[in-house]
Amino acid sequence: MKQLLLITNFIFLISLTARAQRPLESQARFDGFYTLSLDKVLDTIAVKCHARIIYDKDVVDDYNVVDHFFNESLKEVLGNLCDKYGFHYWVEPDQTIYIIRSPGDLAHLKRLAQVKKLAELAEAEKPVSAPVAMTPIERYLSLDNAANTVKPQPPAAVTAPTPATGPVETVSGRFNLSGRVVDASNGESLPSAIVRVQHTSISAVTNADGYFTLLGVPADTCLLDVTYIGYQQDNFRLTRENVKQKITIGLFSSINSLNEVVISDKKSQGVMSTDKRRVSVLQISPSKLDELPNIGEKDILRSFQLMPGISGSNESSSGAYVRGGTPDQNLVLFDGFTVYQVDHLYGFFSAFNSNAVKDVTLYKGGFSAKYGGRLSSVTDIVGKEGNSKEENIGGDLSLLSANIYVEKPLNDKSTLLLAFRRSYQGPLYKKIFDSFNSSTTAATGNNTGAPGGRPGGGGGGFGGSGPTVTTPTSSFYDLNAKYTYSPDEKNRFSWSIYQGNDNLDNSKNITLPFSTASSLSMTDKTTYGNLGSSLKWSSQWNSKLYSNTLLSYSTYHSNRDNSTHITVQDADGNDEDVGTGTFEKNNLKDFSLKSDWEWQATSKAKVLFGTFASRQSVSYEYSENDTSKLIDQHTKAFTGGVYAELEADPTDKLQIKPGLRTTYYDQTGKPYLEPRLSATYTVTDHFTLKAATGKFYQFTNRVIREDILSGSRDFWVLSNNSTIPVSSANHYTAGFSYERGQFLLDIEGYYKTLDGLSEYSQRETGNSRQGTVSLEEHFYTGTGYTKGIEVLFQKTRGKYTGWISYTLAQATNHFDIYGGDFPANQDTRHEFKTVHLYHFGRWSFSTTWIFATGKPYTAPLTSYTVNNYTGNSQTFLTISAKNSERLPSYHRLDAAVTYDLIKIDSRKIGSIGFSMFNIYNRANIWYKQYTIVNNQVITSNVNYLGFTPNITLSLKWK
Amino acid sequence: MEINKIQQLKAFLWICVASSVCLVSCQKTGSSISDYQRPVVESYLVPGKPIQVKVYYQKYLEDTIQYGYPLTALKLQISDGINTVQLVESKPGTYTYADSSFIKDKKSYSLSFEYNNKAISAKTTVPDKPTGFKQSSTSQDIVGFTPGSTNTFEPVTFSWNNTAAQYYMIAFKNITLNPDPVNSGDTVAYKDSETIVGQVASYETQRNNFRYLGNYKVLLFHINKEYSDALTTSSGTSLNLTNPTTNVVNGLGIFTALQADTLNLLVYQ
Predict the structure, then answer these.
(1) A153 domain-assigned
(2) Which domains does chain B have, with CATH numbers?
């Protein structure tokens, strides 16, 4: 019923989108006979109904109107004219009317109008007037410049009226300029956009709130180039007037004809790439994600897996295996707070709703001193603030989940965004759930790992006609909410909440056919999730100083109830409950405060500094039969520290970023010093050298149980002074990138040493039948290293885009308990990925192919049976050296076709996507399972997903 | 021209094939052969009893036989540090030494033989006889399990001295001729059972210790840690793959000594 409601709601939503265009409000009536050129007729209409009509004079010029109107409305007149001459009209919320030939024209008109407007302003040397007092249409039409079409600036698209503070002029006549880059259509700030003064090396990258500062701008007639992934590159003309203000630059999101690349490596920003001097950084634009093939959801974290250095053969983990690291070594920040559980449904989907995400940056290594607490990498996710201009609603419906979001400006100073996603037990959900849970029945010895088929994803072994099996539902959901309040141009406050939960229920209720026992309920319920919230205050103190202070709270929980209850009914009808099983609870609470500051000291030096403190508490309980707690741990820890980093450009070609971070960890009572350094050297415009190094510490570890069939698969623990050491890593990265025309070649090599790694193993001793069970926990400590070379060859622009990536890597661990060196679980020698995207009008086609060397595993080699003293036989397996065997290679072909639903104003309002996962149905092995049946050891493969089609409908109102 | 093109295409295909071979080739790194050739030893030394050592081959995973094939024609010897005795192969893979006085209290013994040019050896020490072994009752009432009834099972407690945290094992041996099963209709043949109780000093019986009624001998074995290590970890169906513990050097299995004290228990219904 719920699903039905959800679908009904969605259909309602779709119907809403039909109201895409705004109705014309003018009450003007038209009478009379017209024999004029079309442009003149339009001018006349504009004057008569006090509307602004924007058109391309060149196009409209060719037509002469000979027509008679009899008391007709504006709508009728425009409709009539447009029909006759093959035009369309489009009405903006401010009642500006655009006359266009095709949807693509509108963005073109707006852009030209913008440039025109700037030119005009420069000419007039007048301050920008408020949008309401726009110049009448005639004025624009009379301007006869290179661009014939002009229009009043869309509100806030270019310049926001701010009290003029005046540019800070330096002695040389140069001045400093600060401003903000936003999405022109919804006012959303754009982080990591690049603003560059044309023909100079002066550039800046916008911060998390879209602010930037350019120091030493040579003249107030310069042109700024502004680029941001997924958006059309734009220019912004400085004038004597607008430099005195805090400028706001609006970018339009790209449409397909512009063929922006979906994922961008450091250098894929066309001409702007040399300014993005960052080492091992990947950035993604969620708005373009729907073009990539997916399993069921646009997936932010999974898309990164198509890039070199990030393993793409882990279907059961959305977490990033970066450069031989494990997902728990990857710091995931959402609006500043740490997220501990990054995936849904056994790892098949990332826990982040792409509709609530604005920007994602992944630092593969050698990252800034601003980030810490993880050994390997950082994924920094910035949530959307919500449309500050108008209310919007949208959503997606796929075979897996339904997703809805609302964004709304509450007043001119605050916005609200709400996004909710919930899975429903559609065919896809069921397939994944079953494929996972079929493994639990492998003990019957006939499992092939093939998904589907069984009722409730399991329950094999109950033959015959007797028992009736019922299974409850399981699902996941996540919720994002963000409230942003900007009392003035200098301060912004935002409150962000994220909650995600998985409720995986593989329980079974079995009604037994015989009379004495009434029912058998086998509970196998795993619930896990996160709740996180952050309160952020960012402030641009002056053009040189910016701060970002964040108070955050994040919790993670993972509970597993794996028990059996038999309800037995006696002759009197009384129920007796007999229960056995194991219960696990893992909780983590993280309360943090941090303050990050940026000080643009000179045009050549920027200082980043800040402080952080967090209080974490972790508990882990493992109990049996509800009474005896085998493990009961509660740890609390405090971490706090400071960092500073200098971004210096000693020459035009060299950028160097030395940094230092120090963390005090109260469990060990020691300070941990982390020096960091990264540098880039621009040899030529096309060729950049880069290198990074640093020391990294990690205090919170997620340990993965070897035996994934019994109990929850992983849990978080805090380092202590005894069994779990504080782990550390050293990174050494060097590489270059070469970009010419539409092509980019990026090669990086890395070497990473790891120390204080923990592996966990539980061993039950005693005999559970005899009630003498005790659980021994073993934390094994070791070291490791990873090394590799990553090659990315990318075509960044054009109708066809895509890339080929290859990673040659090695990840080796050294644990004395396992006899020294062995390949780490995530070790993959070769990984080859190709991604092809082709745009054809509203259609986009994409394919991805992934090849990866099989993962290492430990296998049984032989078995043997001995009798114990009393003569009962016991069988044992002898095991290969740790991870000495390899699974067969992993490979997979995916493809997707997406059709964009584009409104007449060229804005994309949605898409219909059909994607196929694992097209040639490759049986990629997830893991192998061994069972002793009748003295024989049966090996069964548990496979990843086979061929899985999916269809996704995405819509938004605006 | 056309031929040229075909040749180019061929060359291209070869390159594709060669490169994919390169990609795929680095595969399996097998485990050393010697792992398969470790013999499996099974021997329990009890003072005052003749020695029996069984030696098996390991089994392949696909094998359906219960025990590995017997390893024959070996020259096994056991030494107590002073005297070394040769064992005789009494039946294939089973090596015995008939003199029951060779195994004595508190002495250490080492087994050695050569197989496949490797010296296989194992050592053990006879532990002390358990002391202070007593029981809370000499009889055990197995209350019939009827659904809904509230009757409870009253366990018999066995206790012994264990100040040094030594390892113990309890075995139940039914000595009644043709005993009756607890649940009438239970067709599973009677078998002695044992429980490694660990480093404790008492044990309470449980209902499922007894499938059959009658007179039992309750044997408390003082065992060595090697017994506990080798036989408590069973790598049955789990993915928790760890090598089984053994005290046999270059081999597998168990070579250990143990000593028992015995009490009687009547199990009735």
Answers:
(1) no
(2) 38-125 (2.60.40), 134-225+260-268 (2.60.40)
